[in-house]
Write a structure and sequence with these properties.
Elements lengths: L1 E7 L9 E5 L2 E8 L2 E6 L13 E3 L2 E3 L6 E3 L5 E3 L8 E2 L1 E4 L2 E6 L4
Antiparallel strand pairs: 1-11, 2-3, 3-4, 4-9, 5-6, 6-7, 7-8, 10-11
Length: 105
Amino acid sequence: MTWQTVCTKNQVQEDFPFSTKVNGQEIGIYVLDGEYYALEDVCPHAYALLSQGFVEDGKVECPLHEAMFDIKTGKCLREPADRDVKAYPVRILDDSVQLQLSDED
């Protein structure tokens, strides 16, 4: 497991998550009440970036399909998605947002 810097803190806003690609995986970075979270960014129902969706009350809604996910856990809260999305460990080092990635990521 390694930590990788993906952006700076000021690149992530509560209403505008940051989207990045790490080792071929698309990941969305979110901030809620000063805490940072990272989720698999592609909706499991069909291709759409969740980071381009609607963020409200700790949830993100797919911009195309209305599937909904908990930002803190990745838990699927509403269909048509049929599974949770992966949540990645996040830490802040100085002004950098870092993700902990496994060898499979």
